[in-house]
Amino acid sequence: MAPFGRDAESARELLAAHGYNAETCPDLASVAANLDDQVGVILLTEEALAGDRQQLEWSLAAQPAWSDVPIVLLAARRAGHPQAIEKSRVALIASFTNAIVLERPIGSASLTSTIASAMRSRQKQFESRDRLLEVDAARRATEAGEAELRLVADALPVLIGFVDSDLRYRFANKAYEHWMYMSPDEVIGRDVREIVGKEGFAVREAAMRQALSGDEVRIELSWPHRDGRRRDAEIRYLPRRASTGAVDGFYIFALDITERREAEEELERRVAERTEALHSEMERRTSAETALRQSQKMEAVGQLTGGIAHDFNNMLTGVIGAMDIMKRRLAAGRTDDLARFMDAASSSAQRAAALTARLLAFSRRQSLDIRPIDVNTLIASLQDLLQRSVRENITLRVVPGPGLPQATTDANQLENAILNLVINARDAMPQGGALTIETSEVEVDVAYASARPEISPGRYIVVAVSDTGVGIAPDLLDRIFEPFFSTKPVGQGTGLGLSMIYGFAQQSGGQVRVHSQPGQGTSVKLFLPASTLEERAVVDDTTPAAIEGSGQAVLLVEDDESVRLLVRAVLEELRYNIVEARDAAEALPVLSSERHLDLLISDVGLPGMNGRQLAELAREHRPDLPILFVTGYAENAAIRSGFLGTNMSMITKPFAIDALAAKIAGMIPTSPVA
Questions:
Q1: Which residue has the higher pLDDT, 382 or 306?
Q2: What is the pLDDT of residues 142-191, one digit of tens each?
Q3: Is the terminal CB of the chain with fewer CB neighbours within 10 Å at N or C?
Q4: What range(s) does the PAS domain occupy (predicted)?
Q5: Alpha carbon distance 177, 195 (integer Å)
Q6: What is the pLDDT of residues 453-474, one digit of tens each?
Q7: How far out from the chain centre does Cα 379 lie?
Q8: Is residue 25 within 8 Å of 2, Cβ to Cβ?
Q9: Is there a contact between 462 and 320 (Cβ–Cβ < 8 Å)?
Q10: Cα–Cα distance for residue pair 44/304, rounded to 1 Å
Q11: C-beta separation of 581 from 557 below 8 A
Q12: What is the DSSP pairing of strand 458-467 with strand 521-529?
């Protein structure tokens, strides 16, 4: 403060008493020198202003923008012209923007009250100063953060930008120089359409609109360099939300993925090349495997035809030779020794029939009479025969499984299969040993069947024939089911036994498994489907006796003239009345006529309409007519249960007269059939 005379000390004491820190100045220059941010109020007397005010005015003008220090002016009371005096005071303080004039004499209360009011005003200025300092510090921090953020954004190998809701750029990093060939300053403030172009915007617009709706968006597109070089980009649009929650724009992040794309394409190309090479290799292998299989087939066919030719030549020699001798002796009138040659011819013919049956079994084309069979009962009925088939130095043991369900199979073929396996086991034990026939039930699950496609899941009855013989070498196991392949010495066996068993098992819906170790023995397991029926089939081993007819009418349909001649002769010997037809065309008029018929005998494999089709038409005219099918080989008749209808039966060529007579007698009713 700068009061005049004694007023200075009095004012200082008064203010000190009220808690103010007051400092006296002898003149305005001293006031100007002490003026800083700590000064709250300047107290001046009017007399002090009489000196040079310029330095004080400069100090006041140099205050910061927030500062306007209050000045309290103590004016002296004067006599004379009041208006002139007031005008002079106003002119005196015109240069001070924040001045308060108090006229002396003034009481201490008024002075302290004015000083307090001025101090409050000054305090508000200090508060404004502090706020400005805080704002300035925040601004500088923000600028520093933005500078650091831009430094980081510019250093990243990623195009980064921000676009507001009006699709105008508000931020762009240095990468725009590389991607758009524009500096960030050239990008910021401009519309997206101006930066990416009309075509570029058309590609991006849908994704940008989706981002403005609040979704994060990722797109990949081609973004070539200015010089045409390839560049692929992955662009992400991330929406930004204001404090209100509304989307006010989105961030842009673009990454150059050209190298990744090229690597992926190169990988795909290599995979395609490798796949093509693999396909070629698979085709080559398939071709080689096909050629190998064809070679194996040709070898098997060669073995098959050679074996058949050899065996049939031997059998035909027996038949033809015996017949020639009988013709010669009949011509010479010698009949005393004909029976021996007839037996030889019959034996050779029976061997030929057995060979044919084995071939059909191997090819799975034999006619099977499949029905539920009690396997334990069947094996028990064979035990005497099996015991006689082995030597005394071989111990035969039968181990029937308890409580087995029935097996669905052909009883006669199962008997032949078991007998074949027993004979094979006997021949594999020239020094004697143990032979075991065992039955059991197994469940084949899906996992086991999936690894072995030749067998289906389900329950099976297993007939295992095991020996302690010489065994089979591992390199021969894969060939044991081939036709005419045999591990026995030359002349011992045809090589069709296991082939027949394999075909029979496959045709029955089962499988054959062979386990063998050289020097320890062999076990052959025959898998047969288990039946769900509870009725036990009875195994009948009796040979039917020939039963003669009594003139019943039989329609015989057979295309082979020699077979038709022989069957007619057999039927006439059995005292049946025969009507012949060579095919279905000749038989249909007879069937549709009023002629009385007791039985239809038809070959299955007729030319044109087959025997089963003829039977269907016959039933239209004669619903109750019994029908007997005769077959040597017919693919459709392989499973009798699916081939035969009501009151139908089947007999397989070649057949004995007694078997045919029994079949006919069992089918022709005692009362005539119209």
A1: 382
A2: 777 777 777 777 878 899 999 999 999 999 999 999 999 999 999 999 99
A3: C
A4: 145-215
A5: 12
A6: 677 888 899 999 999 998 888 8
A7: 48
A8: yes
A9: no
A10: 141
A11: yes
A12: antiparallel
Which pLDDT does position 187 carry in this prediction? 93
Per-residue pLDDT reduced to its tens digit, 386-413: 888 888 899 999 999 998 999 888 888 8
- Distance CA(497)–CA(24), nearest Å, equals 140
Tokens of 549: 């007819």
- The whole-number average pLDDT for the span 628-642 is 60
User: How confident is the model at residue 464, as a pLDDT?
Assistant: 93
Cα-based distances in Å from 64 to 69, 132, 146, 588 = 10, 11, 28, 132
| Residue 492: DSSP 8-state | S
Query: Do the domains spanning 16-132 and 553-666 agree at the CATH topology level?
Result: yes
Q: Per-residue pLDDT tens for 97-112? A: 788 888 878 888 888 8
> 57: how many CB neighbours lie within 10 A of its CB?
14
For 609, phi then psi, to 5°, come to -70, 125
Helices and strands, counts by H and E, the chain: 20, 20
Residue 635 has pLDDT above 50, yes or no: no
What are the distances in angstroms from CA 498 to CA 357, 363, 426, 643? Answer: 13, 12, 14, 27
**CA angle 559–560–564, rounded 5-degree value:** 90
How would CATH label the architecture of 553-666?
Answer: 3-Layer(aba) Sandwich (3.40)
The identity of residue 435, as a single letter, is: L
Token digits of residue 567: 């069957």
Q: In the structure encoding, which two tokens stand for residue 598, read together?
A: 């007791």
Instruction: Convert the pLDDT of each residue in 49-74 to its tens digit.
Output: 777 888 888 888 888 888 889 988 88
State the fold for domain 16-132. Rossmann fold (3.40.50)
- A 10 A CB-CB count for 495 gives 18
Separation between Cα atoms, residue 608 and residue 614, nearest integer Å: 10
Over 60: is that where the pLDDT of 507 sits?
Answer: yes
Residue for token digits 């088939």? 389
Pairing of the two strands 433-444 and 458-467: antiparallel
Bigger pLDDT: 44 or 315?
44
What is the pLDDT confidence band of residue 509, given thresholds at 50, 70 and 90? confident
HSE-up (13 A, CA, CB side) for residue 223:
24
Element spanning 273, H or E: helix 258-331
Domain 368-529 has CATH 3.40.50.2000: no
Cβ atoms of 404 and 357 closer than 8 Å? no
Backbone angles phi, psi at 459, to 5 degrees: -90, 140
Q: Which residues of 243-266 are buried (b: 16+ CB within 10 A; e: fewer)?
A: eeeebbbbbbebbbbbeebeeeee
- In angstroms, the first-to-last Cα distance of the chain is 155
Query: In sequence order, what DSSP letters do the residues of 500-547 get, joined into one string?
Result: HHHHHHHHTT-EEEEEEETTTEEEEEEEEEBP---PPPPP--PPPPP-
Q: What is the pLDDT of residue 539?
A: 45
Q: Residue 38 and residue 23: Cα distance in Å, rounded?
A: 12
* CATH number assigned to the domain with residue range 156-307, chosen from the 4 options 3.30.390.30, 3.30.450.20, 3.40.50.620, 3.40.50.2300: 3.30.450.20
> Domain spans of the chain?
16-132, 156-307, 368-529, 553-666
Any bridge partners for residue 628, and if so which?
601, 649
Per-residue tokens: 450:
């999936």
Lowest model confidence (mean pLDDT) among 31-35, 117-121, 137-141: 137-141
pTM (global) more than 0.90: no
Q: What pLDDT, on a 0 to 100 scale, did the predictor assign at position 541?
A: 45
134-159 residues labelled b (16+ CB within 10 A) or e (exposed) = eeeeeeeeeeeeeeeebeebeeeebb
Amino acid identity of residue 367, one-letter, is S
